[in-house]
């Protein structure tokens, strides 16, 4: 999937659409996606000047966006919206810097009628930088939660 296909599926837009493309996708099972981390990202102006590091919360957001693609490509959730409901066991192991290629590996753990649970791992050059279990609530696009 390219950027346009991604934006057709999830509601995130610039400057907070972090998925550049999807490498592999098995709907309802797993996804591998890519985020190219560049120095021109707006968050690097303040985090941290002279020592740019991608904020951990944005690594989790990037994982959540990849997970949303996986969830919304599942036939039962197509044309809906996935809202992040919980983050369990979040772990950060190394910093992500400009020039890094963030690979996002998401596996579906459980699906229910209106929710999904995934295992999410972000890597750089094959090294784990972040992992978490993410819980999503799935609702119609126009629903008020």
From TrEMBL:
Localization (cell): Cytoplasm
The enzyme's E.C. designation: 4.2.1.59
Active site: 47
This protein's GO CC annotations: cytoplasm; membrane
NCBIfam families documented for this protein: fabZ, PRK00006.1
HAMAP family the record matches: FabZ
Underlying gene: fabZ
Enzyme class: lyase
Role according to the record: Involved in unsaturated fatty acids biosynthesis. Catalyzes the dehydration of short chain beta-hydroxyacyl-ACPs and long chain saturated and unsaturated beta-hydroxyacyl-ACPs.
The family this protein is said to belong to: Belongs to the thioester dehydratase family. FabZ subfamily.
Alphabetical list of PANTHER family matching this protein: 3-HYDROXYACYL-[ACYL-CARRIER-PROTEIN] DEHYDRATASE
Gene Ontology MF terms in the entry: (3R)-hydroxyacyl-[acyl-carrier-protein] dehydratase activity
Cited Pfam families: FabA
GO biological process: fatty acid biosynthetic process; lipid A biosynthetic process
Keywords: Cytoplasm, Lipid A biosynthesis, Lipid biosynthesis, Lipid metabolism, Lyase
InterPro entries with a match to the protein in the record: FabA_FabZ, FabZ, HotDog_dom_sf
Catalysed reaction, written as an equation: a (3R)-hydroxyacyl-[ACP] = a (2E)-enoyl-[ACP] + H2O
Name the UniProt record assigns to this protein: 3-hydroxyacyl-[acyl-carrier-protein] dehydratase FabZ
């Amino acid at each position: 999937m390219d950027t346009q296909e991604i934006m057709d599926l999830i509601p995130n837009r610039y400057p907070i659409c972090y998925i550049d493309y999807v490498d592999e996708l098995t709907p309802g099972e797993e996804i591998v996606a890519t985020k190219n981390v560049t120095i021109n990202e707006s968050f690097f102006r303040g985090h941290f000047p002279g020592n740019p590091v991608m904020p951990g919360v944005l690594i989790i957001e990037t994982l959540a966006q990849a997970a949303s693609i996986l969830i919304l490509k599942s036939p039962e959730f197509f044309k809906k919206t996935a809202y992040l409901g919980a983050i369990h066991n979040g772990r950060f192991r190394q910093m992500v810097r400009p020039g890094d290629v963030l690979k996002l590996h998401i596996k579906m753990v459980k699906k229910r009628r209106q929710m999904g649970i995934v295992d999410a791992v972000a890597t750089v050059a094959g090294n784990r930088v972040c992992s978490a279990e993410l819980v999503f609530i799935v609702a119609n696009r126009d629903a008020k939660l």
